[in-house]
Amino acid sequence: MKKLHRIYFCIVALGLCLCANAQKTIVTVNEFEGKDIISRDIYGHFLEHLGHCIYDGLWVGEKSSIPNVNGVRKDILDAMKEIKVPNLRWPGGCFADKYHWKDGIGPKESRPTMVNTPWSGLPEDNSFGTHEFLNMCEYVGTEPYISVNVGSSTVQEIAQWIEYMTFDGKSPMADLRRENGRDKPWKVKFIGIGNETWACGGNMTAEHYADVCRQYSTFMKSYSGNRLYKIGVGAGSTDYNWTEVLMRNASNFINGLSIHYYTIGNGRALEFDDEKYYQTMQRGYDIENIITNHSTIMDKYDPAKRVGLMVDEWGLLHTVEEGTDPILLYQQNCMRDAILAGMTLNIFNNHCDRVRMGNIAQFVNVVQSLFLTKDEKMIKTPTYHIFDMYKVHQDATLLPSNVITEKINQQTPEVVVSSSKNANGEINISFVNVNLTKDNEIDCILTSDSQYKANGGQILVSKDIHDHNSFEKPDEVKNAPFNNYSIRNNRLTFTLPAMSIVTICLK
Ligand code: AHR
């Protein structure tokens, strides 16, 4: 059976090569080779005290007339449950290495107002602090991911924060938590040991940070059945030396090592032509090589792949919207952002043997957000709809796929694919067509001992690549059911429309 499929694949591949003008893509998905799990944490998010991400974004306060649960917008909480947000990173970003947690506990009226120095010097009144964040995570059922301050704190301050959040017994910090109204500790799994310590987090060298990381990690204790998963600060995009040094000097002290990669756009979110679009897509696709290169270094020190590669900041960074403060990073979000998100998540899925986490930046009103808010109004961006369509891959087994497709400008693959099988025996395959004008005929062979049948699907597509949601038209771009495909003898065929994202479910 396996052999027959291989022969078929070669014949069709040859056909594709002989017929260079046809937009045709051949995919093989191999069920026999499925072994690695796509961690749900690849679908994580990021909340920072930056611009209107928290204040005037997610957080409206308990007294607001906007429906809320303990001060957090109810519409966003409901949507978080809908897309199964697996983890949420907080409080930064660059803000993390300025944050002193004791400023954000206790009665609101006695919390100090600080200056948010990393982000425009706006006042930070600390009304959203540890209790507000952790209670929200608990309500939604998402793992908190706390990036602690190593740039301007002490080891003792951070050790106490962990004790405050997670210790069940009697101790000064656990008692302080109880005084502040929370008896039982929270579960806190992910702890980030600083943020971008090569820049805003302290401008350290890799060697210096490796020592700092070892030191902080030593005093971060797992209390009362709570198991910490410690994440060291990793490289900014292509700084491979940083990964080398951290893996060599500190990998025994961490469970994960991060990287940050932003795709730099070309001007404003809605102002671009075809050329700029393809340039952006190529920069976005560069993350494939960047992950491969960091993984190769990690393999050298950790062939068993114990340490996860955590892409805990990624996204498409545009010039801010006209009339907004450049440092607050507010941008719109259109079909281009959705295509980049689908492509990136396919790449993460395909690298799930090493990539264990992703956190798109950022959740609300900042960079490539899922939500934009304006007073009582909230809209879901096209990027939100990708997370909705892709939630089916969370914790499913990756089915390796092989894709023969044309390249745009001899660089970016026209079609990017990932595939997985979940615990219910369903196979979900996500296809992204990067081409702006040409549909693509998909011929996908599934190598399996079982016979699969159609079981629904979803599509995100729009007439124009600039299409987006606005407060006036909140549902202009939205995913819709997709059944326009056929599957016979495990051969799936359909037309993948230009600039679309499709997830097909087979059972
Ligand atoms: O997402 C905005 C900022 O980008 C983060 O605070 C920082 O970590 C990165 O440089």
**Approximate strand percentage:** 25-35%
* Major β-sheet strand ordering: 2-5-8-9-10-11-12-13
- Main β-sheet description: 8 strands, parallel, barrel
Using the alpha-carbon principal axes, give the shape.
globular
Number of domains: 2
Small molecules bound in the structure, each named once: alpha-L-arabinofuranose
Q: Level of helix content?
A: 25-40%
Query: What is the CATH homologous superfamily assignment of the largest domain?
Result: Glycosidases
Mean pLDDT score: 95
CATH topology of the largest domain: TIM Barrel
Low-confidence stretches: 17-21
Report the C-alpha radius of gyration, rounded.
Answer: 23 Å
Number of strands: 27
Gist of the model:
The chain contains 11 helices and 27 strands.
Features of the shown structure:
507 residues; alpha/beta; Immunoglobulin-like; TIM Barrel; 2 domains; eight-stranded parallel beta barrel; six-stranded antiparallel sheet; 26% helix; binds alpha-L-arabinofuranose
Written account of the structure:
By secondary structure, this protein is α/β, with parallel strands linked by helices. The chain has 2 domains: 140 residues, Immunoglobulin-like (Sandwich); 359 residues, Alpha-Beta Barrel (TIM Barrel). Helices cover 26% and strands 27% of the residues. The chain has 11 helices and 27 strands. The strands form 7 sheets. Strands 2-5-8-9-10-11-12-13 form an 8-stranded parallel beta barrel, surrounded by 6 helices. A 6-stranded antiparallel β-sheet has the order 16-20-21-27-23-24, covered by helices on one side. α7 runs parallel beside α9. About 1% of the residues have low confidence. The site of alpha-L-arabinofuranose (AHR) has 10 residues, from loops.
